[in-house]
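Progress note, sequence design subtask.
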């Protein structure tokens, strides 16, 4: 397995899982944790959906899950729920809009 892949930790998954849709119709969904890790990998790395590593599963599954959940507002609700809990002590962000880069 490649070393540069992103996988959700057990703690991260424990916080996310209760907020995922439970209304599965038809075939059961494939492993949510693997697919969401793939979605986050694409977002973090900036790669194209078609370049998503095969370890996360079929790229069409990863893309379709992202798009369908976006249309249903799943990502928005998940973000709001997690953000309402307060600041993460593991993640720090810097607003670089005022930082100037010199050659």
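Output:
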């Amino acid at each position: 397995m490649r070393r540069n892949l992103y996988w959700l930790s057990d703690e991260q998954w424990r916080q996310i899982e209760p907020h995922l849709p439970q209304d599965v119709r038809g075939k059961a969904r494939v492993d949510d944790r693997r697919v969401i890790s793939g979605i986050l990998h694409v977002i973090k790395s900036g790669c194209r959906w078609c370049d998503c590593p095969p370890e996360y599963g079929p790229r069409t599954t990863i893309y379709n899950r992202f798009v369908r959940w976006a249309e249903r507002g799943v990502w928005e609700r998940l973000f709001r729920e997690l953000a309402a809990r307060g600041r993460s002590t593991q993640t720090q962000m810097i607003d670089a809009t005022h930082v100037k880069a010199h050659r």
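The first helix runs from residue 10 to 16. Work on this subtask will continue into the next period as scheduled.
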